[in-house]
Write a structure and sequence with these properties.
Strand order of the largest sheet: 1-2-3-4-5-6-7-8-9
Strand content: over 45%
Low-confidence stretches: none
Helix content: under 10%
Radius of gyration: 20 Å
Number of strands: 9
Order of helices and strands: EEEEEEEEHE
Number of domains: 1
Largest sheet: 9 strands, antiparallel
Mean pLDDT: 92
Number of helices: 1
Shape: globular
């Protein structure tokens, strides 16, 4: 059980727990390489602007991870989620991502995701607008260096391509692409 509503904007005035929502998750590892999960949540009034709207959420995912050589691995995830409101309007999201690490220094990764949302453009008179499907695909790599026995420092980069429907292109400047350079610290 948990509080379904998002916290208010006063972050240091903690809201008392309401425990008006609940969730359940089941997972199964049929082999050492496979992990499967499914979940359901009933969330009471999650949005401050629509406190009388409740959500039901479903998710399912499968992860396959395989060792390659003494230090390498390859892992792929397929995930799906659905959010349904009180008006039985459902929005789906999909994700497929994969990462390949031939050794303990390099990781190459790719990700594709597609979601349905009505929260990109406000509706007439406020609230949620029309339902749109947007997508994003990314590819990148990261190189790690050992800086201590249990610590690695990594530098990486990725490139992303975004796809929005024609009705949103004027707001987003077409289908925007983007890149990112990042660093990370991994404690193992």
């Amino acid at each position: 059980a948990f509080t379904g509503r998002e916290p208010d904007q006063n972050r240091f005035d903690f809201d008392p727990p309401d425990l008006d929502s609940w969730a359940v998750r089941g997972s199964w590892n049929p082999t050492a390489e496979w992990s499967l999960q499914a979940s359901y949540a009933d969330v009471t009034g999650p949005e401050q602007l629509e406190p009388d709207e409740n959500d039901r959420k479903l998710s399912a995912s499968a992860i396959h991870t395989r060792r390659i050589g003494p230090d390498g691995w390859w892992s792929t995830t397929l995930a799906w989620g659905r959010k349904t409101n009180d008006h039985d309007e459902s929005k789906d999201g999909w994700l497929l991502e994969s990462a390949f690490s031939p050794d303990d220094r390099w990781t190459v990764f790719a990700r594709a995701e597609r979601i349905e949302t009505d929260e990109l453009v406000p509706g007439v008179g406020g609230g949620h607008g029309d339902l749109y499907t947007v997508a994003k695909a990314s590819i990148g790599a990261v190189h790690d260096w050992r800086v201590a026995d249990n610590v690695r420092f990594g530098l990486g980069a990725l490139y992303s391509v975004n796809r929005v429907p024609a009705a949103l292109e004027p707001l987003y400047g077409g289908d925007p692409d983007g890149g990112m350079i990042f660093m990370r610290i991994k404690v193992q």
